[in-house]
Design goal:
alpha+beta; 2 domains; three-stranded antiparallel β-sheet; Enolase-like_C_sf; two-stranded antiparallel ribbon; about 35% helix; about 200 residues; Enolase-like, domain 1; magnesium ion binding; magnesium; Enolase_C
Length: about 200
């Protein structure tokens, strides 16, 4: 197993213009993995803690310099020049460094970026795509897509309490057909709601 040769971390912007953590991990056999971890629009009370800087002068307090500092100054010295048998052992090491159930010391944005970057480096080492590496020789099967058809809660400007209403077109003969089913249901629902004078 190759040793970790170098780790880089930086603050980037996600598709919503919010800062997030991006990490690069280089192994000494020149394998490489990079990952960025944008946050969701809402978080639940039991989710791992995403570390934000809370400096209102930068990105409205959403900067991630502290999480990046944790990657470079706390985690890197403890894992540099080490090798791990697999990404499970790497993740266990990250959890032990953090020492909390909710990842509040290092930040879930730091640990997830590192975890995914390491898994991608291992996939690169085996000349596989990440999904192939993670499948561990299981047959590849496309999943049934889940599609959001109505938004509520923090995702919408309405008074619907439930955050997302989703469908899963189970029983479709192919992935392409399941996408078609979902699109047709979505547009049919939109027409039905419009005909009743309801918001879409």
């Amino acid at each position: 197993m190759a040793n970790i040769k170098n780790i880089k971390a930086r603050e980037i912007l996600d598709s919503r213009g919010n800062p997030t953590v991006e990490c690069d991990i280089y192994l000494d056999d020149n394998s490489f993995g990079r990952s960025a971890v944008p946050s969701g629009a809402s978080t639940g009370m039991h989710e791992a803690i995403e570390l934000r800087d809370n400096d209102k002068g930068r990105y409205g307090g959403k900067g991630v310099k502290k999480a990046i500092s944790n990657v470079l100054e706390i985690v890197t010295p403890k894992i540099i020049n080490q090798s791990f048998d697999n990404f499970y052992d790497f993740d266990k090491k990250l959890l032990s460094i953090d020492g909390t159930k909710n990842k509040s010391n290092l930040g879930a944005n730091a640990t997830l970026a590192l975890s995914l970057a390491y898994a991608k480096a291992l996939a690169f080492q085996k000349k596989e795509e990440l999904f192939q590496y993670l499948s561990e020789d299981n047959d590849f099967v496309l999943p049934v897509p889940m599609m959001n058809i109505i938004n509520g809660g923090s995702h919408a400007d309405n008074s619907v309490d439930i955050q997302e209403f989703m469908i899963a077109p189970i029983g479709a003969p192919s992935f392409g057909e399941s996408i078609r089913y979902g699109c047709e249901i979505f547009h049919s629902l939109k027409s039905k709601l419009k005909s009743k004078g309801l918001n879409t």
